[in-house]
Amino acid sequence: MKKRIYTATLLVALMAAWNGAHASPAAAKMCQGCHGQDGISTRDNVPSIAGISVGVHADYMYAYKEGARVCSDAKTKAMCTMTARLSDEQIEELAEYYAAMEYRPVEQAFDADKAAAGAAIHEAQCSKCHTDGGRNPDDEASILAGQPLAYLMTSLKQFAAEQREQPEAMQRRTAGLSEADIEALAHYYASQQ
User: Fold this and answer.
1) If pLDDT is split at 50, 70 and 90, which confidence band does 23 have?
2) CA 83 to CA 85: how far, in whole Å?
3) How many C-beta atoms lie closer than 10 Å to residue 69's C-beta?
4) If you classify domain 25-99 with CATH, what class do you get?
């Protein structure tokens, strides 16, 4: 009798833990319109957020909420509006929710010659922080591999123009990038599908 009660209790506890770990926080509904229901973007100017580490994702949301990210266009204004409504607890829950999801690269067209040039730039300038070709979510530098090409182009241009907050090491590397370098890097990361 005790064994059945113990087994039933354990089963209920495991089911509750599994459901809790996979339950969508209510705030995720705000994210799904742009970032996709499963955190995989279907928009060319919006990043996928599935699989991004908790720390990186939370930092991004705090940057929007606290005004460290400039909200100058429709996309960033939406992020600033959304994050302003979130409590710190909700930000952490969202970051954990999306970190538990599997990242899938976006299937998209890219220029193979530009991607090859971008691979060389990545190796020389970016590989120390963005390991495994920008695929490693544990880098604390986000996932770049397989993100939408238009998003990559916009982000890299903003970093190069110092329009986005960034670590000093990244600022040194992006400041010297030409327009062609930026395009090549974007095609390299977009090519990883």
Assistant:
1) low
2) 5
3) 20
4) mainly alpha
Nearest to 117 by CA among 36, 178, 42: 178
Q: What is the pTM of this model?
A: 0.83
- To 10 degrees, the CA torsion angle through 145, 127, 53, 110? -10
Could you report the per-residue pLDDT of 138-172, keeping only the tens digit for each? 888 899 999 999 999 999 999 999 888 888 888 89
Token pair recorded at residue 11: 């089963």
As a whole number of angstroms, the distance between CA 96 and CA 90 comes to 10
> In this structure, are residues 99 and 53 in contact, taking their beta carbons and an 8 Å threshold?
yes
DSSP 8-state code for residue 137:
G
For tokens 């193979």, the residue is: 112
106, 193 contact by CB (below 8 A): yes
User: What does DSSP assign to residue 146?
Assistant: T
* Backbone angles phi and psi of 169, in degrees to 5: -60, -40
Closest CA to 97 of 41, 39, 140, 171: 39
Architecture of the structural domain at 112-191: Orthogonal Bundle (1.10)
Domain range annotation of the chain: 25-99, 112-191
